[in-house]
Design a protein that fits this description.
Helices cover about 30% and strands about 20% of the residues. By secondary structure, it is α+β, with helices and mostly antiparallel strands. A hairpin with a 4-residue loop joins β7 and β8. It binds 2,5-anhydro-1,6-di-O-phosphono-D-glucitol (AHG) and manganese (II) ion (MN) (2 copies). 2,5-anhydro-1,6-di-O-phosphono-D-glucitol binds next to β3.
């Protein structure tokens, strides 16, 4: 095998740390543990049906078969549960964490008593897009690293929900792993965005994308159009204008994509631009959005902003939102800066008069 002159993830982290001589190395060790969990999940996903891990998780006892439901009211796949275990097992022992929180756990996860506690909090969606597992479409893991409040670090006490309720701008690092044709790890420690590709021979993440930037303009958008009757007017207006193409107000044709794995959409946008929308809508008045703030919107938002893109609720920058609960849902728009800013403008402007706008006329596809 030819000797590679690429950096491994470990080398990259050590080089980065040299810029901060006082750093303890805890942070690097934590990232490596997260990366190990992602490698384990990548293997589990890659075995597919052969691994016996497809389908729903059985939440029953003994011979009883009961689909288990997570705190979001969603059916858990076997791989959701296994991926969650990989994350907790591989990160609980190292002494770097004060606690964890996950899409698949109702409450904050306490570091078991036999292990030392550290100064960071790890928040994750262990398997994003899990409805796609059974059809062999890309899925991924998303993570966010926060600093634990000083009171937690000083006392070593158990963590509470309130300790995690920090705005996205407070994130120390964020990233995701994508389990696609290749496994990739995308990471930001607040100094731009870098991408690693898993070398399956070595089992190492190799630095293949040293500086990822989201193009500021795009002609590609992603939204679940089956929800169009529930959208708010600014989103309807934006999508209608894209759909109108060359002859509409935008004067150019757009392409549409929808994978139903946000992590895969985020990756496409990071590589070639685009805009992703899962906006707040009126489908279920008890839900303030579909995606979750702490372990979906914030880490992806951090990556986008660090790559020169933008992330927003439509009304305010995502990273400025003060979380109210661990599993809070939120409307999310992210991607190419100029498009996200346009969508924000549409939210800020008074709604255009329907009668004056041919896009909202009787024959429009997305008429409100
Ligand atoms: P998860 O599998 O972690 O619950 O997240 C799935 C999310 C997200 O990845 C995707 O964009 C969205 O759900 C798809 O929703 P629709 O089924 O409404 O398209
Ligand atoms: Mn998810
Ligand atoms: Mn998930």
């Amino acid at each position: 095998m030819p000797l590679s002159n690429r950096f491994t993830l470990t080398q990259y982290l050590i080089e980065e740390r040299r810029r901060f001589p006082s750093a303890s190395g805890d942070f690097n060790a934590l990232i490596l543990d997260v990366a190990l969990a992602c490698k384990a999940i990548a293997r589990a996903v890659a075995f597919g049906e052969l691994g016996g891990m497809m389908g729903n998780h059985n939440g029953g006892e003994g011979d009883q078969v009961v689909a288990s439901i997570n705190v979001q009211g969603e059916t858990q796949k076997k791989l959701d549960v296994i991926s969650n275990q990989y994350f907790t097992r591989m990160n609980e022992w190292g002494g770097h964490l004060a606690g964890m929180a996950s899409e698949e756990m109702d409450d904050a996860y306490q570091i078991p008593k036999q292990y030392p506690r550290g100064k960071y909090l790890l928040v994750f969606d262990p398997l994003d897009g899990s409805s796609n597992i059974d059809v062999n479409v890309s899925v991924g893991s998303i993570f966010s690293i926060l600093r634990a409040p000083p009171a937690v670090i000083d006392s070593g006490r158990d963590v509470t929900e309130a300790d995690f309720l920090q705005a996205g701008s407070q994130q120390m690092a964020a990233g995701y792993a994508l389990y696609g044709p290749t496994t990739m790890l995308i990471l930001s420690v607040g100094n731009g965005v870098v991408g690693f590709t898993l070398d399956p021979n070595l089992g190492e993440f190799m630095l293949t994308h040293p500086s990822l930037r989201v193009p500021v303009d795009t002609q590609e958008f992603a939204i679940n159009a089956s929800n169009s009757r529930f959208w708010e007017p600014p989103i309807t207006r934006y999508v209608n204008e894209c759909m109108a193409g060359k002859t509409g107000p935008r004067g150019k044709d757009f392409n549409m994509r929808w994978i139903a794995s946000m992590v895969a959409e985020a990756h496409r946008i990071l590589m070639r631009g685009g805009v992703f929308m899962y906006p707040r809508d009126s489908k279920d008045p008890s839900k303030t959005g579909r995606l979750r703030l702490l372990y979906e919107a914030n880490p992806i938002g951090f990556i986008m902003e660090q790559a020169g893109g933008r992330a927003s609720t439509g009304r305010q920058p995502m990273l400025g939102v003060q979380p109210a609960s661990l599993h809070q849902r939120i409307g999310l728009v992210f991607g190419s800066k100029n498009e996200v800013e346009r969508i924000e403008r549409y939210h800020a402007e008074p709604a255009p008069l329907e009668l004056d706008n041919p896009l909202f006329a009787e024959r429009s596809l997305f008429r409100v």
